[in-house]
Prior knowledge:
Layout: H1 5-30, H2 34-75
Amino acid sequence: MGASFDETIKDTGYYRKYIWQEIKREAVIQNMSAKILFELNSIINPILDSGIFYLSLSYVSIYQRGMHDANNALIE
Length: 76
């Protein structure tokens, strides 16, 4: 696949940090209220969490397929 699962999950933390740094920068420029920032948080973090969840499912699926193929090879 390229990157290991651990590296990929670690990278998602960098993306989250970058996204929130940009939101912070724009919030200061736009003088956003804490209420708006909390609303953004309640929208953005679940989206990012879902992305990580589905990424994890992909890795688990690939791993299970590999284990199934290895098991079949041992049986044959």
